[in-house]
Amino acid sequence: MTKNIESEIAVDERGYYGKFGGAFIPEMLEGNIRELRESYLEISASPEFKKEFDALLKDYVGRPSPLYFAKRLSAHFGTNIYLKREDLNHTGAHKINNTIGQILVAQKLGKQRIIAETGAGQHGVATATVCALMGLKCIVYMGEVDIARQAPNVARMKMLGAEVRPATSGSKTLKDATNEAIRDWINNPDDTHYIIGSVVGPHPYPDMVARFQSVISEETKWQLQEQVGRDYPDAVIACVGGGSNAAGAYYHYLNDERVRLIAVEAAGLGVDSGESAATSVLGTEGIIHGSRTLLMQTEDGQIVEPYSISAGLDYPGIGPLHAHLIDSGRAEAISVTDEEALNAALFLSRTEGIIPALETAHAFAALNTMKYDKDDVLVVCLSGRGDKDLAAFTKYLNDLVTE
Ligand SMILES: *Cc1c(COP(=O)(O)O)cnc(C)c1O
Q1: Sign of CA pseudo-dihedral 15, 21, 22, 28
Q2: Residues 214-230: pLDDT tens digits?
Q3: Which of 74, 184, 298, 384 is the most exposed place for a label (fewest CB within 10 A)?
C-alpha cells in the first residue's frame, strides 16, 4: 500500500537519510549553507516561487515531458516499457529542472554570481542557460579530461556567456571540478550561489535537488493513470551518477512498495577491473563533498579514481538518498559496463529512433539483466539525448566495422 512519504523515506531535519547525509563543510561555508538550509523550503513553497517555477518548466523547458510507450522495445523484451522523455527538455536532459529551481532560489537570496561544476557538461549547459535567462554571471568548473571529451557542451556554455574554468588536479574529471567549485565558494561567500548539479553535497542540497527533480515522477503518475489506468509502474529504472534523475523518477514512489526502484551504475570496464564507477558495489561509508555516503576509497580514506565512458556517471560517490535506498534494500543496484551501454545505445537508436545519452544508455542496458513479467509496466527515465556523445558513438560504430 502507499504510505506517507514524510514518515518514511525522507530527509530528517539534520539532513540525514538513515545514516547517510548531513553537512560536513568548512567553517567558511557555514553561513552560506545555513542561509540555504533556513530558506529553501520556505522559498520553494511560496506561491510566487511556484508560479514562476511552473511557468518556466512549462513554457521554457517544454514540460510536461512525454511518457512514451516504446512499442518495438517492449516487443523485444516481452514486457511493457514506457520512456519518460527528459531528453526532450530544453538543453537535452533532466538537469534543467534543477537549475531553474536553484536560479530562482539564488535570485530570492539576492545572489549576483553563479558557480557550478560539471562532468558531461549537461549541468554546465543547464546552468549557463538559466544564468543567461536571468542575466547573472556564470562560472563553470570542468575537469580538463571532460573538456576534451565533451567539446560540444563546452562550446555551448561559451556561446551562452559562461566562463569555463578547467580543473587540472587529480583525474581531471567531475570530482576535481567539484573541489574547485567548493574552493571558489569559500573565497566568494557573499555574492555567489553554488548550483550543485545532482543530489549530492551537504544538506540541504540533496533534498532541494530531489524536490526540483520530483516533477519527473509527479508527471509520470498522471501520465500512467491516463495511459494504463493506474498511477504506478511495477518498476522505475534510472541511471545513477550522483542520482538526480533517479531521485526525480523515484520521488513519488519512494514509499510505495509496489514499485521496484532500479538504480543503474556505470561498471566502466567491469566492476573488478579497477576501472569502474560502480559505487554501490565498490563503495564504503565515508564523507565526500560535504555528505556521509557510499564512496570509492582506499582503506586509509583516499578517493579511488572512478572510470566510466560516460562523463556524467564518472563520479566516486552517490547521493545519500541512494546510499540509503540501496543500503536498506529499497532500491536494487545493477552495474553496466561501457560496452553494454554502447550496445544498448545502438539498440535503442535503431529500435525506437531515439539516440540516448551515454549515461542514459546504462539504464537501458539493465533491461537485459533485470527480471520482469510480460504484464509488467516498466518506466525508464530517458534522462538525456545523445547529441553530445556522437564522437563516442562514431568511434564505436567504426570499431564494429573493422572488428
Ligand atoms: C548528468 C547526467 C546524468 C547523471 O546525473 P544524475 O544526477 O545521476 O542524474 C544522467 N543522465 C544524463 C543525460 C546526464 O546529463
Answers
A1: negative
A2: 999 999 999 999 999 99
A3: 298
